[in-house]
Amino acid sequence: MSRNHQNSKELRGMDISIVKLIPRNERSVAKKYRQRIEASLRAVGLIEPLIVFPIKDGYEILDGALRYRILLDLGVETVPCLIHSSRDGFTGNRMVNQLSASQEMRMLRKSLEELDEKTIASALGMQSIGHRLNNNLLEKLHPEAEKAFNANKINLQTARELVNVKPERQHEILRLMESCNDYSTTFAKGLVLKTSAAKRVKLSNTKNPWSQADDRKTQLLKKLQEAEQQQDFYTGLYRQYTTNLLKLVIYVRSLLNNPDVKSHLQTHHAEQARLFEEILASTEG
Asked: Is the pTM of this model over 0.90?
């Protein structure tokens, strides 16, 4: 039996009075995140019902406590809910499928066929959705790279790395990634940095992979120089310590080799005499 079919068996829908809903747990969220959810609820209403489990005095909220709090503040009286058949077996994560960047982009473009950009942005609690559409990015990608992005083979960060090189080089990198079965951003970034100057894209921004690479080399050289300086300092310090210790041993030996001085120290400065003898014993041992 498929998971979706199992979920349909576990859940049934019902409109429930908000006063009968009891949060299972509370979690603190960033103000910006709460405002985004609230903006969505105000603009398009509750799209995703709350997941609840029946208890003695009402229904315990298994998933949707934040939406519940916002709806409560908005004065909503009845809330669409899905009643789950098991309290302890429920995990919210399995009910949620995270959208990839390309999926989100397609969803937004599909929405633009019926809604204007301002309405969509308002529903998502954003000022604008232009940056989520990534139009400039797609225009710079090689067709095969764009196809890989849309198929979720490469993620958004990898696509952004690829546009730092010319389309033909993007295709070369993509073929290398396919041959190694490695579509990670780290691998792509390494291949981009190894690209010859002739295949790079001239970027107007001050920060680009090439300047960053130079910055990293400079920082690495600086760290190496600092390490060498520290090594020289500690080497000199050790040499000075060794020299001073040698002078001390010679001085102590000359004192203790004198019978009168040794007798005087043992009589009047017994602790110092013992320390001097330990110094000689340690160096001779």
From this structure: no
